[in-house]
Amino acid sequence: MLKRKTSSRDLKPGGVLAKCAKIALLARVLCIYPVVVGWSDLGSISELLLVIVAVAGSTGLLLSWDRLSGFVRRHPSVVAIDILVALMIFGSTSAPHVYMGYLGSTAVLIGLFFPTVGQIALTLLLSCGYLSVAMAYSFQESSLAPTPAAAAASLVLFACLTYVGRVMQRLQAQVDLSLQAAKKSAAEAAQGDERARVARELHDSLVKSLEGISLQAVAMKMRGEAPDSAAAISAAAKQAVQESRELLSDLREAAVPPLCSALERTVEELQALYPVCITLEVEKLPDLPVHLRHATHKIVEEALSNAAQHSGSGAVTCRISRVGGKLHAEVQDYGSGLPRHAQRQNGHFGLTGMRERAEEAGGRLTISSKEGRGTTVVFSVPLGLEGEMNGRSARSHS
């Protein structure tokens, strides 16, 4: 099976918004095309000039998006002038209905480009201008005049299209936030991997070499070969070994961030990706060993991800506390709950991985769920087993 390779362009911040804006600009140009085709029979020179201005503006922004889009965002007056030009064409053309698509595309662009105040101001300008032209057609008793119902529907359409653009702008902001968080996590993960690699290299080479030197010095002393020198070499080697082990410990500690900050980053990422509000409550905890911090973070991360994606709950609560000499991590949602068959199947929603991590850490994972009443995941591990768990971790790394 072929896998599509994701390029950096696909993940560019603002990329989705840019594509939507370009589609709207292309729609504007296509809406003007019928007027240009029929101009020789029905149009006037002034209309043609205005059409050329409108087409040039849309085409120029479409072709030079990267250079001009920022300028347009900073200067809403540019869009205001464009709206006035469009309304002038709308009022003078013999094919006004074509310009409804043009004005609708402009409404989408307003929602995509500007903050709330700019959206309201420009949408009001667009709507009032449209009403003015419609009333002018009515006073002239023209057959092109829209009915009151059609005019009202057009105003509602403009407002809805602006709102569509506004929603797209908000979604792009969430995507950008998620990309930023993902890049930060990737950078920290890469830094942690590098620290872990350096720690392994030091353990496999430097520490063992120093221990070898120390053993050789002890052997020299036992054989009576330069006992003073042998004692000095042995002491120096032991000191170097101790310092190297402290360095290794520091590197391993730095490779895994503090539990609170790691969970805060996870919450930010999930809230950027899914429409959920996650409340994180972390009590003051004693210093936790690296493997316990890592296991707790991964279990809670999986539980939060499941709740955000599958529960249908708009709110999730995560509590980390110390209860009776145990580390207690609880994730609770208020959604649809796990089906009974899902609770029996270990492979569902990553439950197997969560249980395995809990067992490896010397703790216990419990899941309680009722359909329609939410799910609660609890990870509990005795803090008194830190020494035993440290031994397990050391054996697993050796």
UniProtKB/TrEMBL annotation:
Its EC number is 2.7.13.3. It is an enzyme of class 2 (transferase). It comes from the Bacteria. One of its GO terms (molecular function) is kinase activity. SUPFAM superfamilies: ATPase domain of HSP90 chaperone/DNA topoisomerase II/histidine kinase. The chain crosses the membrane at residues 20-39, 45-65, 77-93, 145-164. Residues 201-385 form the Histidine kinase domain. Keywords: ATP-binding, Kinase, Membrane, Nucleotide-binding, Phosphoprotein, Transferase, Transmembrane, Transmembrane helix, Two-component regulatory system. Pfam families: HATPase_c, HisKA_3. It catalyses: ATP + protein L-histidine = ADP + protein N-phospho-L-histidine. InterPro entries: HATPase_C_sf, HATPase_dom, His_kinase_dom, Sensor_HK_TwoCompSys, Sig_transdc_His_kin_sub3_dim/P. This is histidine kinase. It comes from Nesterenkonia massiliensis.
